[in-house]
């Protein structure tokens, strides 16, 4: 049985993707709670007092890499399932992800509805 996803936090500096993902995810699962952050520091602050079922984390951001973000999460004792978000699959990213037990996979930008439906456990 797969885990039920009701709250997703996105950490990605691409605001256009935020708008597209919000619209598509709400169409797939209207009751889903979505939290979007362009700035990873704001996301870390939010995560101090809030929980989510899934973190979708951009690998490459200007303020810090997704890997640095994961390091800070671990230092703070936070655990959450993480899907790394990337525009191109770099084999070194896959290798690096093996250092993080929270990382359960990679998603390629732009997110396809079929992939999000699978994650949410709903029909597209």
Automatic annotation (TrEMBL):
GO terms for biological process: phosphorelay signal transduction system. Keywords: Hydrolase, Phosphoprotein. The modification 4-aspartylphosphate is found at residue 58. One of its GO terms (molecular function) is cyclic-guanylate-specific phosphodiesterase activity. Its EC number is 3.1.4.52. Residues 7-124 form the Response regulatory domain. It comes from the Bacteria. InterPro entries: Bact_response_regulator (IPR050595), CheY-like_superfamily (IPR011006), Sig_transdc_resp-reg_receiver (IPR001789). This is Cyclic di-GMP phosphodiesterase response regulator RpfG. The gene is rpfG.
């Amino acid at each position: 049985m797969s885990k039920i996803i009701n709250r997703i936090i996105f950490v990605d500096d691409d605001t256009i993707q935020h708008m597209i993902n919000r619209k598509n995810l709400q169409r797939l699962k209207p009751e889903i709670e979505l939290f979007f952050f362009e700035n990873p520091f704001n996301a870390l602050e939010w995560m101090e007092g809030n929980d989510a079922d899934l973190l979708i984390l951009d690998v490459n951001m200007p303020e810090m890499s997704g890997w640095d973000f994961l390091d800070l999460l671990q230092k703070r004792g936070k655990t959450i399932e993480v899907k790394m978000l990337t525009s191109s699959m770099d084999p070194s990213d896959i290798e690096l992800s093996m250092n993080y037990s929270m990382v359960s996979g990679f998603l390629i930008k732009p997110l396809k509805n079929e992939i999000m439906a699978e994650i949410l456990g709903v029909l597209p």
